[in-house]
Amino acid sequence: MSETSARLNLPYIQPSQAQKHVTHNEAIRQLDALVQMAAQSDSETSPPEKVSHSECYIIPENASGEWAGHETELAVYENQGWIYYVPKAGWVAYVQALNALKVFDGSK
Q1: What was the pLDDT predicted at 1?
Q2: pTM attached to this predicted model
């Protein structure tokens, strides 16, 4: 059996696994970030100085600072740091700065 789900890469609880709540909480955190996705912006090239818990950004090309090397990924701010997700073709996000939906086509 796989250790993660195919589409969202959510962790499965494994047989005889200790601390099952850790795996379950990780999956809930990922679902909270990725389902009904809403991003603040898709044009900010570096992390904002002031950011609130769970804010999401789509990282554009030429990113700098903590976002360097994470172009086209999603950055979600949680627990005083950035968590990155690699999108898959077909993922949809509402981008607040554009007041529009954006669909990831698998490339950019």
Answers
A1: 63
A2: 0.83
